[in-house]
Amino acid sequence: MKMMLAENIRAFRKERSLTQEQLSEALGVTAGAVYKWEAKLSIPELDLIIQLADFFDTSVDVLLGYEVKDNRLEATVKRLQEYRRRKDPEGLAEAEKALAKYPNSFRIVSASAALYHAFGIEKGDKALFRRALELLEQSRLLLPQNEDPQISEQTICGRIAQTYLGLGETDKAIELWKAHNADGLYSPRIGHVLAQSDHTAEAVPFLSEALAKILSDLISTIIGYMNVYLKCGDHDSCQAILNWGTRLLSGLRKADRPNYFDRISAVFLAALAGSQFLSGQEAEARETLTKAKELAAFFDASPSYDESDVRFVGRIEGASAHDDMGATATDAVDLAVSQFENEEFAALWRSLAKQEDCHE
Question: Which residues 6+ apart lie within 8 Å of 225 measured at CB?
């Protein structure tokens, strides 16, 4: 609750063109008392507040000018999240008030834990990390209330592990991450912390698994954006993200040995050519489609689906690469071209493929 009593006494007094001395005489108090009210050094007694409201022809509510916060659960959660976003340390006191009012609310406890953890990082304060740890453990008990699909036992344990790391308890953090590393969720963090702790040999498998998964997710994301941009006719953005993806994947080649991402790059180039063709860049489309053809042929000459042929990635037990784009990289390019459903573009691809057949 925020009151504006001091500001309102001053505003009402000036509105009446009264000095502090004149107001004090009207109320039967000293000029010093009025000064202290307006300077927020003291607050009038209740009977004087009523006299002031009567004198200024207003209500006590208006004179106090208080603003009551919305303390319902939903509003409180959003307010705690906003404190964290703004990095406002006042949020810690607000969190404790919220916890006192809603001690058994998963959302309040979880939001408060996030606040304490964030300020633990900001200030390097272990007391804040310990409070975050208490709240995270409490949130695990309240997890049945959770309705957020992005929060689970696995993610809460991950946050607990991160808090252990802030407390300097690295072994506990790694152990907890490993115990909840389904689908390699925490492999990047495990690998990172192990490498920092000079356990490089142990770190590499986790880093390899992390990079392979990141690349797989990135490819899906790029293709998703490509389809969005093509559907809304934003060829500049489509070409930009495909160019970026192709450059990124090209850096994963070991010397002159092909790897699975060359096959993906060939498809990206075919899609880039399609976008160029549709936007009237026919010469550029021909050049890009030629690159797609050459890269596909390079891969097909010695196809590799072995993750250890990818730069920065070691062997991952049980890993394999699969897609539904055809038996060869050339088949995959052919499929990418056909999906544009543009006969002129398809004819360009056929003519380039025919030139290759003639050379053979």
Answer: 237, 238, 241
Give the whole-angstrom CA distance, residue 248 versus residue 231: 24
What local confidence, expressed as pLDDT, does residue 320 receive? Answer: 64
Which residue from 7, 64, 15 is spatially nearest to 40, judged by alpha carbons? 7
**What's the pLDDT score for residue 359?**
44
Minimal CA–CA distance to 277: which of 353, 344, 351? Answer: 344
- pLDDT, residue 360, reads 46
Q: What is the largest CA-CA distance in the chain?
A: 110
Residue with tokens 């004819």: 347
Are 129 and 237 within one domain?
A: no
Phi, psi at 254, each rounded to 5°: -95, 110
Mark whether 43 and 9 lie in a shared domain.
yes
- Does the residue 115 lie in any domain? yes
pLDDT for 62 equals 87
For residue 28, what are its two tokens? 């039967």
Kindly state whether residues 52 and 120 are assigned to the same domain.
Answer: no
Number of domains in the chain: 3
Under-70 pLDDT residues of the chain: 1-2, 66-70, 316-321, 356-360
Task: Give pLDDT, residue 307.
Answer: 83
At residue 12, the pLDDT reads 92
CATH number, domain at 25?
A: 1.10.260.40
CA distances (Å), origin 221, targets 218, 269, 338, 351:
5, 16, 21, 31
User: Residue 253, exposed/middle/buried by CB under 10 A (0-12, 13-18, 19+)?
Assistant: middle
60 and 77 share a domain? no
Express each pLDDT in 77-126 by its tens digit: 999 999 999 999 999 999 999 999 999 999 999 999 999 999 999 999 99
Contacts of 134 (CB under 8 A, 6+ apart): none
CA 212 to CA 217: how far, in whole Å?
Answer: 9
Which domain-ending residue is among 180, 196, 226?
180
- Note whether 333 and 256 are same-domain residues: yes
What sign has the CA pseudo-torsion 255, 258, 261, 264?
Answer: positive
d(CA 133, CA 173): 12
Assigned token pair, 247: 């450059």
